[in-house]
Amino acid sequence: MKALPIRLTPGQDLRAALEAAVQAQNCRAAFVLSGIGSLSTAGIRLAGDKDPTRFTESMEILTLSGTVAANGDKTASHMHMAISTATGQVLGGHVAPGCIVLTTAEVLLALLPDWQFTREPDAGTGYDELVIRARD
């Protein structure tokens, strides 16, 4: 495991930038150990919902965690985030594309260069679930 601290800048898409950062390290699998920052727009898929809910106000990232898969399959990453609104309301769920950094996002990744993550159908859950393989 190799730690990779990252600072994202205004206008970057949180999810896409983390996937690109992992891929730039010639890695296909990573875990988000920690993440804080601010967003101008967020897409969060709330528990039980099929589609993400869009938020378009200044928000703080309170926590960010999950897996990042940089293998060209954008559905393989799986991150959760808790955010707070300007009024202090706290919301959380799955990180969808379109979470745009407002001022900064400070993220610590754990790169796993010997592994690769994919998502494949799981008959037991009915969903695409994490599959972990040794990297070729």
Automatic annotation (TrEMBL):
Residues 1-133 form the PPC domain. GO terms for molecular function: DNA binding. CDD domains: DUF296. InterPro entries: PPC_dom. Pfam families: PCC (PF03479). Keywords: DNA-binding. This is DNA-binding protein.
